[in-house]
Amino acid sequence: MFTEAQNFAIVQTELDTVFFQQFEYDSSTPGIATANTGVIFKPVTTEHAAYIGEINKATGLWNKVTEVQTVPTANPAVRNKYTIYVQDFADSIEISKDLFDDNMHGVWAEDVKQFALMARVTQDQNAFALFVNAFTTTLTADGVSFINSAHPLIGGGTVSNIVSAFNGTTALSDGAVNNAIVQLREQKNQAGVILGGVPSILLVPAKLFKQACQITDSALVSDNSNNNINVYRSMYGFTVYSSPYLGAAAGGSDTAWFMLTPQHSVSRLIRQGIETALRPWQYSNNRTYLYQGNFREQVFVPDYAGAVGSLGT
After folding, report:
1. Per-residue DSSP letter, 72
2. Rounded CA gap, 134 and 105, in Å?
3. What is the distance between the alpha carbons of residues 18 and 108, in angstroms, rounded to a whole number?
4. Residue 27 Cα distances to 36, 86, 219, 240, 299, angstroms
5. Distance CA 261, CA 68 (A)
6. Which residues pair with 43 in a beta bridge?
7. What percent of the chain has pLDDT over 70?
8. What is the largest CA-CA distance in the chain?
9. Complete DSSP assignment for 183-230
């Protein structure tokens, strides 16, 4: 004979088993980007409700010195303090005791699966909103949009990380991708030093995924009658990722695209991973279980460096 506590534990275990089977999907599928794709959203953990950081202007180039010359002293600087507030996401569903006991046609199991799926979609939509709003309301610590034509440098001057036009357009193409690579290779840091960034990620909406793969992974140059070797595949080897939450169907754009180096600063601040809880039917006034879950996180990008983007127009 099971005690009440044992019965309660069995019920939560059954619900959690269904929930996490749906929530903890395999995010290693080639080309499919999610909030858990660590090379795009670098995970940062915190134990607080807010995360405070500053942008560092590193030292400049080293100086030539003679044999007994006093070694010059560099002057690093810190500017542009930023604060990221963790957001709390939560929801719950009620399952009647009779429905759970009978589970006719697997109804409660399907309800829990959909509940878990919505948690996953919420996480992804919140994460990719950073890129959807990259040209407008997603701001870096310097106070301008993530992808902008004039990021002010701590060391003086400005940097643009908007992909320059190829043949009058910044739409995704072989030539535009090359322009993005050149911009990343020549991009200056906060001290005004060219770092020679190497692209590792091409991030596109779902409607551009096929074209992006053709440009980057064909054996020969795509959409070209010449049998030229595709250097993007043979030399750079960056990965194409896509997400449906970048496209127009999700409030974004079907033409915008981004290129990142491993040194980019797009981050996912995690205060608490997904947690679930169950209120047993004995504590309700209508004999229902209340199954709820929540997670606490936020995405942010403190600096422009290591990223370029295009509206594709």
Report:
1. P
2. 45
3. 10
4. 7, 23, 27, 14, 18
5. 40
6. 268
7. 91
8. 87
9. HHHH-B-TTS-B------EEEEEGGGHHHHHHHHH-SB-TT-SS--B-
φ, ψ of residue 102 to 5 degrees: the values are -85, -40
Cα atoms in the 13 Å half-sphere on the side-chain side of 232: 29
Give all domains of the chain, ordered by start, each with its CATH number. Answer: 4-23+30-56+75-310 (3.90.1690)
Tell me if 300 sits within 8 A of 267, measured CB to CB.
yes
Helix (H, G, I), strand (E, B) or coil at 258: strand
Give me the residue label for tokens 């560099």.
74
Q: Strand (E) positions, the chain?
A: 42-45, 50-57, 77-85, 87-96, 151-152, 158-159, 201-205, 239-243, 257-260, 267-279, 288-300, 307-310
For residue 294, what are its two tokens?
């929540």
Question: Which helix (H) or strand (E) is 110 found in, with range?
Answer: helix 107-132
Residues 6+ apart with CB under 8 A from 206: 242, 243, 244, 246, 247
Structure token digits, residue 21 = 């089977």
Q: Note the pLDDT tens digit of each residue in 160-218.
A: 999 999 999 999 999 999 999 999 999 999 999 999 999 999 999 999 999 999 898 87
* Residue 157 φ/ψ region, left for φ over 0, alpha for ψ in the -120 to 50 degree band, beta for the rest: left
Specify the length of the chain in residues.
313
The Cα 55–Cα 117 span in angstroms is: 36
104 residue type, one letter:
M
Residues with Cβ within 8 Å of 221's Cβ and at least 6 positions away in sequence, in order, are 174, 228, 229, 230
pLDDT at residue 217, as a whole number: 81
